[in-house]
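Ops channel
N.P.: pipeline sanity check, posting one input/output pair.
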């Protein structure tokens, strides 16, 4: 058996071995758990707000129809989309702060264990 076969066998065996719960990996997961809900909410609201704004612009410019009523509907939709996008960042910051506060104790304790501080 040559060395290349041995290395390949070891790499395949590592895939099937149970993974250890590394403290650094736990810290990364906790950090992700604290930040992910705020990120997903901000991304979703940003997409929804942008789509509403774009639809309003299309109505306002007469792409979907002509007339004063259609233009007014477009302006209102555009304003709603702008409002959603404007609210998005403060909401993100608030949710991020709440998530960090929720997991702060666990993250700090785990960080102390990793760095060796008592």
């Amino acid at each position: 058996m040559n060395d290349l076969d041995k290395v390949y066998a070891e790499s395949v065996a590592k895939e099937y071995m149970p993974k250890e719960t590394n403290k650094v990996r736990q810290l990364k997961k906790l950090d992700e758990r604290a930040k992910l809900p705020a990120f997903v909410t901000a991304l979703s609201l940003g997409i929804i707000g942008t789509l509403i704004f774009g639809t309003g612009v299309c109505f306002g410019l007469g792409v979907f129809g002509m007339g004063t009523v259609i233009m007014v509907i477009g302006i209102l939709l555009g304003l709603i989309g702008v409002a959603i996008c404007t609210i998005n960042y403060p909401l993100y910051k608030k949710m991020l702060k709440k998530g960090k506060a929720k997991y702060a104790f666990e993250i700090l304790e785990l960080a102390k264990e990793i760095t060796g501080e008592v």
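N.P.: looks fine end to end. The chain has a mean pLDDT of 89.
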